[in-house]
Amino acid sequence: MILHRKGTGMKLNKDFLTHNMSEDYYLVPVGGTDFSGIVKGNKTMGIIIELLKNETTEDQIISAMTARFDAPEEVLKRDVEKVLVELRKIGALEE
Amino acid sequence: METLALYRKIAEKMPAYDTVLFHGSAIAVEEPGGLPLCELTEAYATRDVYATTEKHATTDADPDCIQTTRQAYLFTAKSGTGKSTHARLWREMLGTRAVMVNDDKPLIRVTDQGALIYGTPWDGKHRLSSNICVPLKAVCILEQSLENHIRRITPTEAMPFLLQQVYRPSDPRMLARTLELIDRMAKSVSFYKLACNMDPEAAQLSYHTMVTDESPMPIIERVWAVR
User: Fold this and answer.
1) Going by C-beta distance under 8 Å and a sequence separation of 6 or more, which residues neighbour residue B214?
2) ipTM attached to this prediction
């Protein structure tokens, strides 16, 4: 199991483009990447991914989400971790 | 395999000409009262569509290329679902009023007047295509089902399928352009979801729904049960 420190800088892989339509948010990889699918998520996922367009850390993302939403910090932490795990699986994160 | 590699190289560049490669089976249908399609396509048999696409691309529809009395319908789905089979049912039903634009990977050019779909030589294992371009009226997303059922869907509902079936260039800038073109195409084309079997009734249902449907949104539903 690979452990990722929450203070480690990360960024969205430039080979993954974002696209949104109405309330749906998509992450679309260029052709030829190992991941050939499409990721579809809601607005919350979209906000997290938009934050990843600039170099950031997991702690910074959680802070930004806490400032923006009224949800308990533990809930936001869990949601951010879940998104980051999925993005790592498909190679969408540069760390 | 080498010819497909060449087509991929072409597809990588085409978004710069407002054109995307799309995985699906496209059929052109003559509207009632027009000339039979076989006569029209003969008149354009020697026309070089690729020159039109690559050298003379403009944002206006090419008046020499467009057959205003016919429109195209594109069936798309995962491989093996039955796109070519459904297009064949339309040809059997319509006879000379229908002709294949491309049975595998047509090109779609997005203009200010709407989307145009082009035949190309990369036309699948049955080698079905014509050297024509036709206004694209509707995209129909297929899935297999025992009972035939069709409903109109919104561009938002269609978007995941469009993103999966459009060719995605390896250059991020061309992919960004592709996504813009898909959004623009979604404004001029109707979308349907068809759950179907391989009976002729499936083609009758999809044809009568898509060809006669001139209404704007909202969603229309029709069910045609197998007898």
Assistant:
1) none
2) 0.86
**Closest Cα of chain A to B157: distance in Å?**
10
A9 Cβ contact partners less than 8 Å away, ≥ 6 residues apart: A55, A56, A57, A95
Beta bridge partners of B134: B117
Q: B93 φ, ψ to 5°?
A: -75, -40
Cβ-based contacts of B179 with chain A (< 8 Å): 17, 19, 28
pLDDT in tens, B211-225: 887 654 443 344 444
Of B164, B172, B176, the CB nearest to A38: B164
Query: What is the pTM (predicted TM-score) of this model?
Result: 0.82
Residues in chain A: 95
Give yes or no for residue B111 having a pLDDT over 90: yes
CA-based nearest residue in chain B for residue A41 = B160
Question: Which one-letter amino acid corresponds to residue B130?
Answer: S
Instruction: Please judge whether A21 and B156 are an interchain contact, meaning their C-beta atoms are less than 8 angstroms apart.
Output: yes
Contact A57, A7 (CB under 8 A): yes
Please tell me the distance in Å from B21's CA to the nearest CA on chain A: 13
Of A22, A28, A37, the CB nearest to B179: A28
Reported as a single tens digit per residue, the pLDDT across A24-63 is 999 999 998 999 999 999 989 999 999 999 999 999 999 9
